[in-house]
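Hi there, hope your week has been kind to you so far. Do you reckon you could talk me through the fold, stretch by stretch? I've dropped the whole record in just underneath, so have a look:
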Amino acid sequence: MTEKGFTIDFGGGEPASTPATSPATPAPSSAAPAHSKLLILGSGPAGLTAAIYAARAQLEPTLLAGYAPGGQLMLTSEVENFPGFPDGIDGPDLMAKMRAQAERFGTAVVDQDVDRVDLSKQPFRVWSAGREFTADAVIVATGASAIWLGLESETRLRGRGVSSCATCDGFFFKGEEVAVVGGGDTALEEALFLTRFATKVHLLVRRDSFRASKIMVARAQAHEKIQIHLNREVVEVLGEKKTEALVLKDTVSGATEQLAVGGLFVAIGHKPNTELLGGALPVDAAGYLQVKEHSSASAIDGVFIAGDVHDHRYRQAVTAAGDGCRAALDAERWLAAREA
């Protein structure tokens, strides 16, 4: 998604290739009411699941989906780990089904970006494409964006060997050599996980040392399938229809070399999509929104949080969907208590 407003990741799923299907024609903002009991920000699995539950509870929610709706799963060629699809399903098809289900029960979906919000008082106010929306309660489900290397070839080959989620895509690389970029705990966890499938895992670290914990480094160093390459930077991903090799640059000497691999996993971090909130909600040390214990409630009464915008541990479509369910149930109960 784009940088404006919250056209961002929107929670869960595996970034990959160009969408297999086009998103639905954007609904005009005039089709949605100016005021709703519940306003949902984000159209990934968390936001759409929240919409399904809220709509079935007759809350008649409005969902601001962004100009490129659907979240990261719109960029995923195949999803095999979402329950209910034994033969797998294309990411865009899954999101289209979730959206149709939300709309069937009465969700008003608006394919526009959020420009800014005001959560300082009720009703809460949200501005989108020059129009103001108000709501008694808000669910923030804007997701988190994977941090990429910034290479054109990396973007072109996402879903064709380039991924940011080993848990999501590792299964597809049985019997192949793969590479993981990163020097933190996440990168080493990804590398160790991939040893279940790959014949060899090349761990590429730009520096001459790791940022990861000593115990994780020791595990990686001891694993017979992991080969560590320090002072190596990926400068190009080679391949036409799929990833075939990487061009590596020695960060000390400047020399380049090719490394033949069938997959590249980028594990240099994620960024929660919270800019549109303008600091209205507290975040943790990594910038993720915080929720109250055993709840989806935020620090602001009537504002709830779901999906990868707060969950930096699991980052899966199914866990984001579960979060959306929790947030909708919490919002429904909060609204009912308020009206009692």
Residues 317-339 form the longest helix (23 residues).
